[in-house]
């Protein structure tokens, strides 16, 4: 599969045909023009013969037909914000990039149904800008600004999943273009919350890294923008108290809990050290060993409900003081979230980042963290673990930094791979967790997919992929067993 | 496919082998013993050679291997509460029933993770009884008491979907036995809220009427039992005001809204006429033309939040009086829900029921209902439409009754089929709705699946079915194009 299947003259003929479909702005072949499409957001630098930039669904259908006929492989790209190298071509040059960033004409809001029909190339921010005047938003809360198609292909989760669910839980319908029969359109654009009319085929395309078909349009359930929020940065008594705090919040504040983000003391220290505009929120107290950023939100009208969420949060925390909670800062939501959002940048100042996107049952968190930290301290004492995570949904960025300096081993990719394997083995085998919580699977972590996915599951995923893309032209990720 | 593929002597040999696997209690062949397994909850009376009643997953694996080897077709049955005839055999005798009702040993609750691992034969009531001491419940609210496996196979929704979602949205993992390779186990029993490690294979088995594989275990997200509810039966100004009321409630009471059930005046009249213990809740006012049963619920601790939901509801409705709302009864939640739950029984007293389980975008409800009522009044004036529906999630039971009496045409199945086709055509073609909202697809409505599902979707669904069950031994429902 790694050698181009088309000859040079065939490729030239294909490019001429594609130019006919896409017009002058729709086809890039100059290497400078193509550069940003071949560079991954975190991993990967590839090369491509051309970038196809259709701005209509019909052009995509035509491109797919032409490419399938020519045996030309495609890699799909939305806003190119993915973190597993699934949206950029490899270095072989055998792929052309099919970019959907210009497919963004259509945004149709149905406020009574609380739904929106949207082209796949529309970005999350563009969608939310269009929804805002109606008091609505698409509640998948991410650090990046991906396209809607990319969000579906990765089934993104984010920081507020416990309240709103992931993309899958908010996707009512979609339209996809298939590779087999090439260019066939599967139109499943319904805007229904209840619809059980046979197998739900749209599920095939969610979280499949673009390997099963090309999403060109989505119908999404949207939500009302909250009318008030209350935020606190809380220091739990110890690690076990983090889980106690989560259970108590779900019991006492239940429907209001929108975020429960654990932040390690090491991550917090890095933020204060490298981001000068952020100061210790607990001053004059020293920084804690661990803290939790928690948020309550209410979408209801406070004049009708009489709810003042900040008071609710204060009351809830007061009951816990001295027992579950040692310290807390309530209010200043923007400032507190700034701390949380500054972690990734701060970590980069500390050295080379080794990022993790793992998850586990919430009940495993304390034991996993203890064991993970002990493992690292024993075997890789020069590595700094600076973890943070979405405890309410089980997601954990068990991130680490490899610093530079005297007495510290040189950065070594093989050691990094060994660390990743040990941490993933721990989370998957011992704690029944996942090696990829919200970033999906692509070339960057495909070897781990093969390591942790049962043979039965790989066989079935591969059979489906062969059925949907028998020439194996779509994307870089093969979900079947290694051949 | 309609003739038995096994000869009598082969069948006898198979029964002996199955008896070896299942033991004395696990295999029924006596026609009296089998009767309750061959009679559908609403439709269908079939016959079967035997009922297989495994009580372990391993027995199911062995049964599947033996049946696949013998070419023996199976129909899966949970608690046999389905309404589309998918869980009972047809009259040909070519099926044996694989009943999962004895597969119910395992219920393992993780209260910190708010999840439960449960055998497929456990019923909804049994599950909720086990969860109740932990303050937890599985929130799919149904009139029946199905098995968990059946609920997944039908992706049931129910009356509180707007708050809790459907089964799909609460299913974290499952284990299935495949027909190809026969008896292969696909173990996807993770308890994770964030897990994107390739195509989500468990989705194949949700809402597929048991045609793609045999679910033997599920991992479910569960929820905290609400601490308070507030209920009202509300008379909106007119039909348009129903949608206004829904929008206002979502704006003002948002996260508390758990049910919004429309009830037609005709259905209400039937309840009062035939259920003597229920009296007019609006007395001394006459019955309204239409009313809405709405429910708010809060899981949070009222001592912490200070919320009194009944006051919230009163305040909200007071603002609407004279404009959107004409009358309302607040409180007496049990009595008000009794009215709603009595509708089906009351309708049976009125004549022969023609049941509908349709859905549409919420924004289409008023126009659909107007047009549907006008169509019936014009073409079938003797039929009484007595509809009710879950307006918040778009579900609508546009049920009707064919009464007996002087001047009324004799009940005629062909006319019923014509009515069903006209109503489905209206909802699907004109209002972009669904002919099966929450009951799924089975022999009862397979012809409508074929009528309303695009060829591309049927081809893909059929390809998957052929891949998963090449001998076509599993169940009565073929999702591919008519052959």
From TrEMBL, chains A, B:
Transmembrane segments: none annotated. Pfam families: FAD-oxidase_C, FAD_binding_4. InterPro entries: FAD-bd_oxidored_4_C, FAD-bd_PCMH, FAD-bd_PCMH-like_sf, FAD-bd_PCMH_sub1, FAD-bd_PCMH_sub2, FAD-linked_Oxase-like_C, FAD-oxidored/transferase_4, Oxid_FAD_bind_N. Its cofactor is FAD. The keyword Magnesium does not apply. Keywords: FAD, Flavoprotein, Oxidoreductase. One of its GO terms (biological process) is respiratory electron transport chain. GO terms for molecular function: FAD binding; oxidoreductase activity. This is FAD-binding oxidoreductase. The keyword Oxidoreductase applies. Residues 44-225 form the FAD-binding PCMH-type domain.
């Amino acid at each position: 599969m790694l050698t181009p299947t088309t000859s040079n003259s065939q490729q030239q003929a294909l490019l001429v045909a594609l130019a006919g479909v896409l017009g002058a702005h729709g086809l890039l072949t100059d290497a400078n023009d193509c550069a940003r499409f071949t560079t991954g957001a975190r991993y990967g630098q590839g090369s491509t013969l051309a970038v196809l930039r259709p701005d209509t669904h019909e052009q995509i259908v035509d491109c797919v037909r032409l490419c399938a006929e020519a045996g030309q492989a495609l890699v799909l790209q939305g806003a190119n914000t993915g973190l597993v190298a699934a949206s950029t071509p490899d270095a072989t040059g055998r792929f052309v990039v099919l970019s959907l960033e210009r497919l963004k004409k259509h945004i149709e809001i149905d406020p009574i149904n609380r739904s929106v029909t949207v082209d796949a190339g529309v970005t999350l921010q563009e969608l939310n800008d269009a929804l805002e005047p109606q008091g609505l938003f698409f509640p998948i809360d991410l650090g990046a600004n991906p396209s809607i198609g990319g969000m579906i292909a990765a089934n993104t989760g984010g920081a507020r999943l416990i309240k709103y669910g992931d993309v899958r839980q908010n996707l009512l319908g979609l339209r996809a273009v298939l590779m087999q029969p090439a260019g066939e359109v599967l139109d499943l654009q319904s805007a229904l919350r209840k619809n059980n009319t046979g197998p739900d085929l749209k599920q095939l395309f969610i979280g499949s890294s673009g390997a099963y078909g090309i999403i060109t349009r989505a119908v999404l359930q949207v939500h009302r923008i909250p009318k008030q929020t209350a935020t606190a940065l809380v220091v739990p008594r110890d690690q076990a108290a983090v889980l106690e705090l989560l259970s108590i919040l779900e019991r006492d504040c239940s429907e209001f809990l929108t975020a429960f983000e654990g932040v390690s003391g090491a991550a917090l220290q890095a933020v204060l050290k490298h981001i000068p505009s952020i100061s210790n929120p607990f001053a004059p107290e020293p920084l804690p060993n661990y803290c939790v950023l928690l948020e309550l939100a209410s979408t209801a009208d406070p004049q009708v409900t009489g709810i003042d969420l900040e008071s609710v949060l204060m009351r809830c925390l007061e009951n816990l003081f001295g027992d579950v909670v040692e310290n807390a800062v309530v209010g200043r939501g923007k400032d507190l979230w700034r701390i949380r959002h500054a972690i990734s940048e701060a970590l980069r100042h500390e050295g080379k980042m080794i990022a993790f996107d793992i998850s586990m049952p919430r009940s495993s968190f304390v034991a996993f963290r203890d064991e993970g930290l002990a493992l690292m301290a024993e075997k890789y004492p020069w590595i700094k673990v600076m973890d943070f995570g979405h405890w309410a949904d089980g997601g954990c960025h068990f991130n680490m930094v490899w610093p530079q300096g005297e007495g510290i081993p040189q950065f070594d990719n093989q050691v990094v791979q060994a660390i990743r394997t040990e941490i993933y083995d721990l989370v998957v085998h011992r704690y029944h967790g996942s090696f990829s919580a919200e970033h999906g699977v692509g070339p960057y972590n495909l070897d781990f997919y093969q390591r942790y996915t049962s043979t039965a599951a790989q066989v079935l995923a591969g059979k489906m992929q062969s059925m949907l893309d028998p020439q194996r032209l779509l994307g870089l990720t093969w979900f079947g067993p290694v051949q």
